[in-house]
Design goal:
Helix content is about 60%, strand content about 15%. By secondary structure, it is α/β, with parallel strands linked by helices.
């Protein structure tokens, strides 16, 4: 459901979040639900402001039970430094709100019931989002770091898999909590939604990887120079295996060897990507024309 525009960006509330607010209403603690809503909104606006300052396209923002999703241009994941900066902005905003609230308390501007809940919301949202698992902010930081060494696709698979594992753990604990009467449906909803979001992140990994490869041309043309690495492959190996070692911000050359381990040709990353887009993942690297 659309709730308005902030800085020209459409803001939406996910249905699961509305359901969570309705649970607060039924329990007679809607004021706490609105505090949670406000904390999540500030968290997501922080992501948005930093993204805009870094020149990243912001398509829309959706508020979710565990925080929110700023739908940013896919180019963000291709720039590890920008992705880290945008990711940490959300938890940092929660820490800033905690410091602000403690300052108000020191000056007597404090509510003994809602004040501690406000602090709790910010601490939980910041701490939870720092878990090293996609789609959480911590997972984005870890992916950005790992992508430099293992490539964007493998880093996305790893971090989204960690997100699914955390979701299963949270869901299992939520079910036990419901059976024991010590937790509500909100924790169960949280676990299910994280699993769904992590699965979506994993399914987008191949697309992001192809974007990473095609973006390398623009990066090289813009910078004029780029560190290089060499990959050695047998001629019959398909391109899907050849591109696995490719990482961001480095240009790759593939030395192709025959079955007798003798040199056949040298292929640049651009030639590999062109062949990949033309012939598909299963095309043998030995059939790519190189120098």
């Amino acid at each position: 459901m659309k709730i308005g525009r902030v800085y020209g960006i459409d803001m939406y509330v996910n249905g699961w979040f509305l359901f969570q607010l309705s649970l607060f209403f039924v329990a007679g603690i809607l004021d706490k639900g609105l505090i949670l809503f406000g904390v999540v909104l500030v968290h997501e606006i922080a992501h948005t402001i930093v993204a805009m300052r870094l020149g990243v396209r912001v398509l829309e923002v959706e508020l979710l039970p565990f925080g929110g999703v700023a739908r940013l241009g896919s180019e963000l994941a291709l720039n590890t430094q920008k992705e880290m900066a945008v990711a940490v902005a959300g938890p940092f905003s929660n820490l800033a709100l905690i410091a602000l609230a403690l300052g108000f308390r020191n000056y007597g501007l404090w509510n003994e019931e809602l004040g501690p809940f406000f602090l709790q919301c910010n601490m939980m949202l910041a701490g939870f989002n720092l878990l090293p698992a996609l789609p959480l902010d911590g997972g984005r930081v870890v992916r950005a770091y790992l992508a430099r060494w293992m490539g964007l696709k493998e880093a996305t698979y790893l971090c989204s898999g960690m997100g699914q594992a955390w979701a299963v753990l949270i869901t299992s604990l939520a079910v036990m909590g419901l059976l024991l009467g010590i937790s509500g449906l909100d924790i169960l909803i949280l676990g299910l939604f994280i699993f769904y979001a992590a699965t979506r992140e994993k399914s987008a990994a191949p697309y992001l990887f192809v974007r990473q490869l095609t973006e390398k041309k623009r990066q090289l043309a813009e910078a004029g120079v780029m560190p290089a690495e060499t990959v050695v492959s047998l001629a019959e190996v398909p391109l899907r295996e050849v591109i696995k070692p490719f990482v961001p911000r480095k240009f790759h050359f593939v030395v192709v060897l025959g079955s007798d381990m003798r040199y056949l040709t040298l292929i640049s990353e651009i030639e590999v990507v062109d062949a990949l887009l033309t012939h598909g993942m299963d095309y043998p690297v030995g059939q790519v024309k190189g120098k």
